[in-house]
Design the sequence.
């Protein structure tokens, strides 16, 4: 008990990152002290370090630590399967992804958003165009849920994405009408649809996607930055720009 109290007092004395950094070993090797510090000051560790600490705790202390990081998402993106809902044998094999800083929105795009009286600009993802994204028979751009950086849909849009044509509820997906600005700031009207798969889902820009591809002469393996923003709160726009 005295040792635990000493550790807690030590944790309480750490008030800044520099102090903590001087105390840590390099390369990082998790120890009992780290398991204790995590429970009181998780902000001092990266997600990768937490994974190592958690593994140490399970092996040597006999229990699993719970993440205490706050959820930074803006709005729920529907009942899409989340990592905590997946079987343990699948989540344990998932690689930790390090998110790079969001790219800066070009000034000409900012000006266009201002002209439309838009706001809530959000960087969504860096998208690599695959052959399926350029297939005229498919006529859609896929945006896998696990590659989208944040949740950006409203509850109304989430509900709309579930709707199907016909009274039986088994017809085609209705989708949400959205507007897309291409790299030259030309505007297109498309449909956003959600396709559910076994362990995840995909958001797709469909209906007139072929027009966007042919107008811009998009090619396989080309990469795009994708942002979203809103006009008059209920109009959803996407911005596409070449990487």
Sequence:
């Amino acid at each position: 008990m005295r040792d635990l109290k000493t550790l807690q007092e030590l944790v309480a004395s750490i008030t800044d990152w520099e102090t903590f950094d001087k105390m840590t070993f390099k390369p990082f090797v998790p120890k009992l002290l780290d398991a204790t510090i995590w429970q009181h000051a998780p902000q001092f560790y990266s997600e990768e370090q937490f994974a190592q600490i958690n593994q140490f705790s399970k092996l040597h202390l006999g229990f699993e630590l719970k993440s205490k990081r706050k959820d930074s998402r803006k709005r729920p993106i529907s009942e899409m399967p989340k990592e905590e809902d997946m079987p343990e044998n699948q989540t344990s094999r998932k690689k930790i992804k390090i998110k790079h800083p969001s790219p800066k929105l070009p000034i000409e795009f900012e000006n266009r958003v201002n002209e439309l009286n838009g706001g809530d600009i959000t960087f969504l993802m860096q998208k690599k165009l695959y052959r399926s994204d350029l297939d005229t028979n498919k006529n859609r751009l896929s945006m896998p849920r696990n590659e989208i950086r944040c949740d950006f849909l409203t509850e109304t849009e989430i509900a709309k994405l579930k709707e199907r044509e016909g009274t039986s509820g088994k017809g085609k997906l209705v989708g949400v009408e959205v507007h897309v600005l291409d790299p030259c700031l030309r505007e297109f009207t498309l449909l956003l649809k959600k396709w559910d798969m076994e362990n995840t889902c995909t958001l797709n820009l469909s209906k007139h996607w072929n027009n966007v591809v042919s107008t811009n002469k998009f090619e396989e393996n080309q990469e795009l930055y994708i942002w979203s923003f809103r006009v008059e709160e209920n109009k959803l726009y996407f911005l596409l720009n070449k990487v």
